[in-house]
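Thread: "does anyone have the structure for this chain?"

Original post by V.I.:
We have the sequence but no experimental structure in hand. Need at least a predicted one for the grant figures.
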Amino acid sequence: MRIAAIIQAAERVVLTLWVGGLWMTGLVVAPVLFRSYERMVAGEIAGRLFAAVSLLGMLCGALLLAFAVARARQRVWRDWRAVALAVMLTLTVFGEFGLAARMRELKELMVVQPATAALLAEFGQLHGFASLLFLANSALGLVLVIFGIRPRVQAGS
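Reply from O.Q.:
Generated one for you, tokens below.
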């Protein structure tokens, strides 16, 4: 098997791992948790799972972008797929180290002091925004799965 074919297969596996993790966690695991456990327990478990999926996404996104840059060099940003990967990676980093980090701080605050309306409102806003970013990432990932991670080679190229 040629090295190019191995790299192409590795790209597909890495993309499948990332996008499959997003879809499985968001559409299957989290809803089951909230139907099966008390809200606070389910939220704690779901938060840990989403953090793990974010870390996985950062690793997968970095690998996929490295493959894209190695393949296309300076022309990498002319391909919408590389741009979609960069957007997904950016959303993942912002979601984990911006939104989720603040949400964890708010949860810790609510353990040591009574949950005020302001704290609950901020948490709710952050949660809603994080959910939208997660949905956007899941949709972008689906687009990449459908259309492929690599541009199609045109006949005669």
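V.I.: this helps a lot. The helical segments are 3-36, 39-72, 80-112, 117-147.
O.Q.: and The mean pLDDT is 92.
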